[in-house]
Design brief:
The complex is a heterodimer of chains A (376) and B (500). Chain A has 376 residues and is α/β, with parallel strands linked by helices. The radius of gyration of chain A is 31 Å and the shape is flat. In chain B, a hairpin with a 4-residue loop joins strand 2 and strand 3. Chain B is globular, with a radius of gyration of 27 Å. Classes of the chains: A alpha/beta (376), B alpha+beta (500).
Amino acid sequence: MTRDSFTGFSSIRRIERDKKRFDAIIRGRIKQDLRKHITRGELIGKRGREVVSIPMPQIELPRLKYGRKQMSGVGQGDGEEGTPIGAGEGEGAGGAGDQPGFHLREVEISIQELAELLGEELELPRIEPRGNRTIKSRRSRYKTIRQTGPESLRSFRRTYRQALKRQIASGTYDFKRPMVTPVREDMRYRSWKEEPEPVANAVIIYMMDVSGSMGNEQKEIVRIESFWIDAWIRAHYHGIANRYIVHDAAAHEVDQETFYTTRESGGTRISSAYEMAAKIIAGEYDPQEWNIYCFHFSDGDNWGGGDDEKCFELLNERILPVANLFGYGQVESRYGSGQFLEALRENIEDEKLALSHIADREAILDSIKDFLSKGK
Amino acid sequence: MPQLLSPELQALQKEIEEYARGYGLDFFDVIFEVLDWEEINEVAAYGGYPARYPYWRFGMEYYALSRGYAYGLQKIYEMVINNDPCYAYLLAANPVVDQKLVMAHVYGHADFFKNNYSFQHTNRKMVDEMANHATRIRRYMESYGEDEVEGFLDICLSLENLIDYNAPHIKRRRRLEDAATDPSHPSRRPQPHRIDAKEYMEDYINPEEVLKAEVERMQEERQKEELFPARPEKDLLLFLLEYAPMTNWQRSVLGIVREEAYYFAPQGRTKIMNEGWASYWHSTIMTQRALEDSELIDYADHHSGTVATQPGRLNPYKLGLELLRDIEERWNKGRHGAEWEACDDYELRKSWDTGAGEGREKIFQVRALYNDVNFIDEFLTAEFCHKHKLFVYDYNESTKQYQISSRSFDEIKQGLLFQLTNFGQPWVYVRDGNHLNRGELVLWHRYEGVPLRLDYAQDVLRCLYAIWKRPVHLETCDDDRPIVLSYDGTEHTVQDRSED
């Protein structure tokens, strides 16, 4: 080694601090525009497995500079006069600055973080996973001290303290020559302890009315809303299962893709969906082990003939007792809004039931709040 | 962790350095450091300097660079710092042939930094200076709060380009403190100039009315001087430092931003030449000395990548390199001077060769005495523009596209010079620091036919207001219509103004 490293990297890299400040600014911007991002629904299309790309126009400092559009410049290449050279920026040599040139058009943010922003913005309480969780995993943590162990884990401080204590107690410590010599018995080693860590599992069952009165706009609203509900619930559990049920007069379980694209024309019997949900829960998700979330979206136009009563019965007896939360969102369609929301409000009293009326895209955020502000 | 050079790289450095010296390059010591890609991105985010003040924009650069690298969009090849000694970085993962190329390129830059006149006033210990700046700003953050100081940095950096790029070389005005000792300073009482004469000749040699006229003229002059500032000042940051009401730490932060802006300015003013010079030397050293047979293909691939031109763009590496080569050829063959200029015989010009052989010598002189502006002004020729297919483009409103508008030599040269002069920045001066005797600040944009981005300009006024704390105005033109933008702390206004 002839010289010290010039850049002198320390173990905590300096850039991390600046990166954090930048992240904070980004978070601030996203939060500021959250309502816009949510109502537009454009984020969902940009969703990766764990991250979402968010368009981030102009995060640069203002400067006195020329307007680009009117600017001419000098370039190099073939072509006659009048030949177009591309619609983008024609950047000449004059733009040479001291900074590397780049344009940040979008930033990536994890879905987890997005959910947190949503939570902050809507002041959502954190979900408290319910009951005694039965599924547990064990995790090792270095948090105890033992008298034996490998040298690599020796705790210098504890060993020293032990040796000092012993020497003082036995009178071998000399204040004028303060030498502390540990012996075998003084040695202390860091050691681990296994801790059970509760892992909460959750299942979310989405149900949607796909009868003729639910148009594309209504489905889009459901899609946007369920994306955010999903993000929020996911932020609180490790294992999440999603199930999708569509119904008109009869219910079918489908995959996510079909869920958002199917269109039927039949009538509406909501009880068919509830029945299927109850069956899925009973068959596959033991409420002792699972946190169960159900969300149902409809325009509220249920068939007459006692189907409402059948729904109440299913909810009261088979779904609400086992679920953490049952959310019913009534999306206004071009035929107006049905009676089901009112019927539920009048007939069922259960704090696990969350009701929401969604007039249009603008109302999505408030609706999310209706569903999730119970902290279940 | 950064690694010291391996024995192989050390040997390589020694070899390349010897070649460079052999060609007559003259440079500060160069210290190479090997970094992995995360580290090189970190260093690059800080503009190459290991210690910069804490600031979110560096974090943003880092984010963008890391993503660019991860997606394979970009890769930083070389970075070199104008300092004595020069610092340069090598990417650990690069193959040997790349390291050679980078080293040769870096020695070109190091020679340029040391010898080009633009850098004669730059601080060669800037690495240390920047570390000091970082310490000071960190201390202010501890005392006055991170948000406070960082917010003020945002403001200062928005005004960063409003400096006088020529200032290091010219004494624009007498400093305030000169007034006390300098008898010719305008603040002294005006005294007409008398010619010594015998008493009886006095009335003839220094007639009363001439003296009176001279006093009047001087008083008029003085009144002009009493404008504040006496004549429009380009160094807005200096003006603010001297006259704006700021706390001590704010003044200090603004001073730091200004100092760093001045440090970077000459690099911006010599971008084409500097990159051209470094490319000239890496290609010369590599092709004539350093290259092994087996490395030829890789070298050619990377070199062509460096000097590639995308359609419609101008690559400073390429333009600088070709122009230097052109100069070398012209001076080797004696293709300059009155006789050459006067000759319009195509065949004669084509075979013109006086065997002067002064090319190498000439380009060494050019690298010492020119900046991008006079480099282009003096050495860009019609033949060169034609050979390298240069053109002028403009924006076509109806097709919403940039398009080639001309291939005329004069227009190309004008276009290039416009891009380069004043760093491609608009000319903005402080015109009045006590507008209407109300302490309002008036900036004046010298309009050259291209309007400013007005939304940015309004944001800049807001920043300026935060420092000046009195209403601020910017005189400019929007599509040839003279206007004045104002901000009084609560609202922006745009008004027409009469051109003066």
